Records
---
Amino acid sequence: MEKGTPEDSSRSEAERITREAVDWFVKLEGAGPLKRAAFVRWLQVSKQHIDEYLAVTEVWRECGEVIGPGYSRENLIQEALGGRTTH
């Protein structure tokens, strides 16, 4: 069985951090103090966590410019789910 290259491992790690950053972006909507504290701890793990989270927020900002004002994350999620609730 072949082992992955260091580049594969690095790419996997970067993809994992990106997924986590997206997850945090979604989870922070209406988050309480415990969730926010957990988020801060996640950010403190590495500069890459901070960079990825900022990249996610930038993508969201750019999407807002494209789709126009008045849309929140929750509105878009609801629309994507066809009105089903996310809770």
Note: Helices lie at 6-27, 33-44, 47-67, 73-80.
---
Amino acid sequence: MTWPVALAATLALELPFAALLAPPGGRRALVRDAVVVNALTHPVAWLAILHLGVGVLATELAVVASEVLLYRALAGLAWRRAAVLALAANLTSAAAPYLV
């Protein structure tokens, strides 16, 4: 799988979580912010796993932690909402290749 295809698949799996977990009236903004968050974290995760040999679990844990901080900073989400979004979205996209 190429990086653009992997990013597109990640966005297809993760953006619905942003839409579902958005605060009232903030769906469009949070989905936009989720695209930005993924544009920042996905290339780093791809590089870490495929080219640097970092384990998938370690990479995903780092991505979740980073995304919680990014959702707080970019979208102004509460810690809990940011954590639930980052964890649920990344669990889904990380597990998908193993379920197909």
Note: The chain has four helices and no strands.
---
Amino acid sequence: MSANDKPTHERGKCPACGYIFDCATNVDDATALPKIGDISFCVKCGSANQFDEHGVIAIDESKLDEEARQEIRRIRRAWMKTRGSEYAS
């Protein structure tokens, strides 16, 4: 098991809004635990963060590769639909 495969915290606090979450779900494998380097999406404010050895940290989305940025945009659009008129443009 490499350092990047080491499971990290399941609980955390969004660095953008302070929301405390008590679980994280992998969209490809609901039984997988988050690992260092995995992206986390805050269901409260819609920010993208990243798991590190202490929890989640803010990330600069512009530094991610295009595929990752597209995936975050896709997730954010779906999230906004679940929020209804609260985030309608």
Note: The chain has one domain: 3-87.
---
Amino acid sequence: MIMKKSYKQLSLKDRDRITIEERPLSAETRSRFGHWEGDSIVSRKSASALNTLVERKSRLVLITLLKRKTAQETSTAVIEKLGNLPFTLLSLLLRQTF
């Protein structure tokens, strides 16, 4: 049986998140640059992991090999990749991983 957390049990970080349904229309229609989606990929035997970031309009893909499969490593990879881009980050949708 899966128990859902009540609103009071959620951390502040959880309450600040928006769902995919709440993201900007321009992200859904791919009408503007700057809307990104991210995911993590783990090898079959969990020997290695990748972080992927895809820009919705251009479909530009950025891939990072993660040294460790941790939230901190993923966060660092995302910040490093998106921090060097020549255009504005409008939204970032990440799947919950690690």
Note: Helices lie at 12-16, 25-29, 71-83.
